[in-house]
Design the sequence.
């Protein structure tokens, strides 16, 4: 696999469904050589899934205090996300933790970009909010541009 | 956590837990007795099997069903998987960073990648076991009152042997690693309570015993142990009616059952400097590692001896009855009591998880611990208090920095 796009989240928890919603749209819109996956399991298991790809783009909901719908882009292959390792996660390991553990174990893909969509409402049984849905559409366009712009190095 | 200090005296310590109440005991009422294992499993994502086991035991006790040994062995095997998962996570990802001075496992991995990786590999062996026996690694679905929906074939379990052997070797390294940590000098005269069984290190069956002479049938739990609301916490506090707070979990099991550990586990404990009796709760990280080793060892023994049962479950017919079940969750004894009607509907349910049993003991530990360390700056005191709370692997310790410490000094 050259490029792998993974939408991460929980479709039953409001804005946390952002990554999955983006993956759903992207699946129909990207070229055949790009693989799109949805992942609602423990982020640590991404370490095993993304080893197959040269370049990985992960899309997930985040909370940083920025306005809802803000799009963050982190180039995780360029700089550690240690500052974003939230201490508040319960029951284990969040995405930023998983990425930093992957780095420590030497198990990151050559290129790893994270799109974070700022969310606020994580209520059970809700759909992502309107502003998050608009951000999902915007992230979809940016990811399509990004995967088309340059083929993975090496 | 609230600490009140007056001069050189700690006048009050309160661990205030605010979890929105989830009303599990209330919404079990009216549900079928067969639903209790899967409904209560949802109480915890780390130890669902414990809830399934205690619920099954209680229902089978109510309905007078005895479970054949091959099915009991499969349950024990499944429980080994949960102990491995849960303990490996706590030892490597949550507690070890406290001892080595790191903010989190992620920070620790920058310098100790091999150890963190080892912990995750051990955990994976537990996941694999739970997946094969339970149908999936999180919230397994294969357990039912009377046994299992489906028993695995020999070859399915044998396929796990290599991974479990590697995990067992890894556990030996972990026991040595944590055995060399520095432990604060801290001991108290605890009453340890665990299941006691003549032939096995306790998991799924036995009487409730303690080092202070408690020796009762599980059905008498409510005669000796009372749960009560305390105003400062949404978690219930449990205590012995006769003697007050007590201690459950790995350290309790170890102190009361050292001689029933496998020879390999006993030897590893001794080599790591652990005596047969241990009253320092900070050394629970060593005990937890020894139990992880034991669970791998025991799983391998059970797999080697495995013969699929003729039927994976015993048929269970409802009748009006009350039943009690108690098993050893990774964090300690988990008690369930159910009253059901003739049609099998649940009329009343009581669930006493290990964390609520340990909470008064945790508060007493903190009171003494803080008293001896009043001169420490607040930030350092908070770090060490978190470490002391994590000795008990309470459910609330999942988040790495969960504690807000209010020190009120005058």
Sequence:
């Amino acid at each position: 696999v050259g490029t792998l796009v993974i939408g991460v989240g929980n479709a039953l928890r409001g804005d946390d469904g952002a990554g999955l919603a983006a993956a759903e749209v992207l699946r129909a819109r990207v070229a055949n050589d790009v693989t799109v996956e949805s992942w609602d399991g423990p982020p640590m298991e991404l370490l095993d899934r993304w080893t197959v790809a040269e370049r990985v783009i992960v899309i997930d909901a985040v909370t940083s205090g920025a306005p809802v719908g803000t799009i963050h882009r982190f180039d995780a292959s360029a700089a550690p996300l240690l500052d974003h390792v939230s201490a508040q996660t319960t029951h284990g390991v969040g995405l930023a933790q998983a990425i930093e553990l992957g780095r420590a174990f030497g198990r990151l893909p050559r290129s790893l970009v994270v799109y974070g969509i700022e969310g606020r409402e994580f209520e059970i049984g809700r759909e992502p909010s309107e502003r998050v849905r608009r951000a999902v559409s915007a992230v979809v366009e940016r990811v399509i541009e990004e995967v088309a712009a340059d083929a993975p190095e090496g | 956590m609230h600490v009140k200090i007056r001069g050189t005296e700690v006048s009050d310590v309160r661990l205030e837990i605010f979890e929105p109440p989830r009303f599990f005991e209330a919404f079990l009422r009216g549900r079928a007795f067969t639903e209790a294992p899967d409904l209560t499993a949802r109480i915890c994502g780390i130890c669902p099997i414990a809830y399934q086991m205690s619920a099954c035991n209680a229902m089978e006790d109510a309905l007078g069903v005895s479970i054949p040994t091959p099915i009991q062995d499969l349950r024990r095997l499944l429980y080994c998987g949960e102990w491995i998962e849960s303990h490996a996570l706590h030892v490597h990802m949550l507690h070890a960073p406290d001892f080595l001075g790191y903010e989190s496992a992620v920070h620790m991995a920058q310098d100790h990648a091999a150890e963190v990786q080892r912990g995750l590999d051990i955990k994976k062996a537990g996941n694999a076991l739970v997946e094969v026996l339970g149908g999936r690694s999180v919230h397994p679905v294969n357990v039912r009152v009377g046994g299992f929906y489906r028993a695995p074939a020999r070859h399915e379990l044998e396929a796990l042997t290599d991974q479990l052997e590697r995990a067992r070797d890894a556990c030996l390294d972990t026991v040595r690693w944590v055995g060399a940590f520095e432990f604060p000098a801290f001991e108290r005269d605890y009453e340890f309570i665990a299941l006691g069984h003549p032939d096995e290190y306790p998991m799924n069956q036995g009487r409730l015993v303690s080092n202070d002479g408690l020796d009762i049938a599980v059905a008498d739990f409510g005669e000796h142990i009372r749960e009560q609301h305390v105003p400062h916490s949404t978690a219930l506090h449990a205590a012995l009616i006769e003697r007050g707070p007590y201690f459950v979990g790995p350290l309790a099991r170890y102190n009361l059952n050292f001689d029933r550990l496998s020879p390999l586990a006993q030897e590893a404990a001794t080599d790591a400097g652990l005596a047969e009796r241990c009253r320092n709760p900070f050394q629970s990280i060593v005990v937890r590692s020894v139990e992880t080793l034991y669970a791998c060892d025991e799983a391998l023994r059970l797999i080697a001896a495995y013969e699929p049962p003729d039927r994976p479950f015993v048929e269970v017919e409802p009748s009006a009855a009350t039943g009690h079940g108690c098993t050893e969750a990774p964090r300690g004894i988990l008690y369930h009591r159910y009253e059901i009607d003739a049609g099998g509907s649940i009329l009343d349910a009581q669930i006493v998880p290990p964390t609520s049993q340990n909470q008064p003991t945790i508060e007493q530990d903190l009171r003494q611990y803080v008293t001896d360390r009043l001169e420490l700056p607040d930030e350092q005191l908070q770090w060490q208090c978190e470490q002391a709370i994590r000795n008990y692997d309470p459910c609330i310790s999942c988040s790495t920095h969960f504690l807000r410490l209010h020190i009120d000094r005058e």
